[in-house]
Amino acid sequence: MTTHEPAPARQPAAEIAVIGGGLGGVAAALAAAEAGRTVVLTSDQQVLGGQITTQLVPALDEHPHIEAPGGSSASYQRLRRALRAEYGEDNPGGGWVSRLCFEPQAAVRAIDSLLAPHVTAGRLRIVTGVRPVRAVREDGRIVSVRLRDGQGHDVTVAAEVFCDATETGELLPLAGAPWVIGSEGREAFGESLALPGGGHPHAVQSCTTGLLVEHRPGEDHTVPRPEGYERWRDSQPFTLEIAGWDDRSHRYRMFVDGPDGHPPFWTYRRLREGALFGTTDLALINWAGNDYADASLVHEPDRARAESRRLSLAFLHWLQTECPRDDGTGAGYPGLRPVPDATCAPDGLAAEPYVRESRRLAARIPVRQQDLEPVLGQARAANMADSGGLAFYHMDLHARIGHPRSAYSPTAPFQVPLSALVADAPSNLLAAAKNLAATQAAAAAYRVHHGEWAVGEAAGTLAAQAVARALEPAELLDEPAEVALLQRALVHRGVPLAWLLDLDPADPLFAPAHRLAAAGGLGGARRERLTAEPEAPCDEQDRAALVTAADQLAPGAGRAADHLPTDASWGEVVAALGAAVEELTVDTGGRRPAVPSGGRPSRSRVVLPSGLAGKLVVSCQALPGEPLHGPQFMAQMAVAAHSGGAAAVRINGPADIAAVRMAVPLPVIGLWKDGEDGPYITPTLEHAMAVADAGADIVALDGTSRPRPDGRSLADTIEALHARGIPVMADVATLEDGLAAAAAGADLVSTTLSGYTPDSPHQPGPDLQLVRALADRLDVPVVAEGRIATPVEAAAALAAGAHTVVVGGAITRPADLTARFAAALASTRPAPESQP
Ligand SMILES: CC(=O)N[C@H](C=O)[C@@H](O)[C@H](O)[C@H](O)COP(=O)(O)O
């Protein structure tokens, strides 16, 4: 695509930044640009499209009503039309899993055709090949996001509103938004699809590296047998049978119908039907056989990527050599040949694994399984009054890591609630892809193509409206009058808010009907069916519900129905009430934030992460030379600490901090050990800034009276960090140090360095006396840290007045722990050998 820019040296700024170029990102950018806003859209890939391009699932997962006039938004319908126009065929692949299967290249061009007018108009800039590495925050909002390309060049995007449309919700941890991943656990919301007990953050759904193949009978394209082949063959297991949602096994054959009447495996996700175009078939292999669930893309990205590719090659090898042949003659189809695709599948394997589960915004009440399930006597799931769009797919949980059984639950046609797109903090961050505030179970129903598009489109429209009204997104959603205006903007761009299949976005009734329906206007017969049937009578309950909904949208609007005959049709009632709502809608003109226009609050407030009082912090550190040194190990250590109930983690060095930040939704206390003599814990301001840049929520500094190598005082160093809104933990050795550090502005004082300076007591256990003395004298929270070896000692530290307790080596240094046990045995006289 000629319109894409590589990471530019200059810094693009726009009203709205959409980070992530998958389907959610494309939909968000399109909606925001069509609302007239300036937009920067970034992608970590070279092309846009995510699921339908680089992740190689260009066979749309949809629902039975997708082609009904009101079954999806006007923009999604445009995308589908653009895809079909590439071929002049309704289903170019003829795959049976979807009504629209196509090649990734066609998707790249179709997306380009939707976005190109906005690029040409200068409203939209697309920057490819960059991934976010840092979000700069000020006063609870994001001011800019720094992105890095493959060569290490950075570009910074400044904007008013940021949409996270990345595939795994990467902006959430970078921006300090609360997030979750894996199963919330059944205890959290009583969902039957959740795993039993409390949270299982590790139980993330499988990913799949798709594979493009054609079939050349008589030729041999057998790929080498990859490492681990036998294990995967026997455990996945490799088979053309598949366990259905009904718990029965469904038997397929390669090129012919199976014994249970199922169509062939080959045409399942066929992307090009050769017979239509005078060429060969092109099929996508994305099957239970190559569903990879040994490691997650969030917790162990490198391993998951590498192994999911190997697994797909192993499955191909099995299809080529061992798969039972349809005619019963021997095994294997060696003529299956991996086909490279110029941008998406360089060696037949997708450029990126297909992501089923993302980090998700954590909300007090997320969208849950129960919210999407069928309701007795109704055609739809329970109405969401703050609807911003529609989706409909079952809750389809593929194998979760450590829990290989898939899980499934039906849904009824449901909506995208706008409240699930906003973070409490930062206030200008929106979820725009699979990262909306939904539980694992519910998110599994939004994750498919049209669901992700609907979330992105709602987020882009909300972002545009927030900019237009000079409100933060969350502020806007708190104002019913503003939500009404936002919903008006949505329906005017052809986004249905409720399920009314027979209303086309071009129908004049579309806008009023959807606004009234979302406000609760479907009360009678229309609760039981998905159609509006505007010509049909409006029964009493429908009429009463419409009147109440109209009053809800604009007080007094319901009176417009008083003058209508009792036998008025549903369409006539909706038209009259809709007109009254329009007339009575009060435009408050938005509410300007309490800052001068164009400017943002300048004084940074330093806010300590909440939830640390009385809690355990686990220090996960391994220095160079230690066996577990390396960001991937420390990220896993932090995941283990999180699973065990740590409230925060303490991490050494920018590389480890950056990795841990992306792996666990916990505050990170960052430090950087450097230097031999004197202060070595984050010795200079430069070290401290690098720690903050890597994403630490609190920076720990040497807080002793020793001179610092950069000649700055502790107070100066703290002031510089505070100017960036970063709280400081001073690591001290003595009471005097602690008093001086608090006076210098430290936000927390920790006993870390007691025993590591000449003037502090050298003792085997923790310095609880210092904890007590500091707690007696200081107003700032005191942290007990250093040589706490047992749970009893941790509890004693709290009792001595500590606000928070940090434990390191006793949890995270297996070599030291082993040495303790070994020493204990060595000093014990062995029991005399028992006599035979
Ligand atoms: C003195 C020093 O360099 N302390 C370091 C500070 O970050 C870490 O090596 C400690 O592991 C951490 O303080 C926790 O203490 P303990 O590992 O003793 O529970």
From TrEMBL:
Entry keyword annotation includes Membrane: no
Pathway info: Amino-sugar metabolism; N-acetylneuraminate degradation; D-fructose 6-phosphate from N-acetylneuraminate: step 3/5
Catalytic activity as recorded in UniProt: an N-acyl-D-glucosamine 6-phosphate = an N-acyl-D-mannosamine 6-phosphate
Family stated for the protein in its record: Belongs to the NanE family.
Keyword annotations from UniProtKB, A to Z: Carbohydrate metabolism, Isomerase
One Pfam family in the UniProt entry: NanE
UniProt-listed NCBIfam families: PRK01130.1
Entry-linked PANTHER family: N-ACETYLMANNOSAMINE-6-PHOSPHATE 2-EPIMERASE-RELATED
Protein name as catalogued: Putative N-acetylmannosamine-6-phosphate 2-epimerase
UniProt superkingdom: Bacteria
Record's function text: Converts N-acetylmannosamine-6-phosphate (ManNAc-6-P) to N-acetylglucosamine-6-phosphate (GlcNAc-6-P).
Species this protein is from: Kitasatospora terrestris
Enzyme nomenclature, EC number: 5.1.3.9
Coiled-coil features, chain-numbered ranges: none
CDD domains: NanE (cd04729)
Matches recorded under InterPro entries: Aldolase_TIM (IPR013785), FAD/NAD-bd_sf (IPR036188), NanE (IPR007260), RibuloseP-bd_barrel (IPR011060)
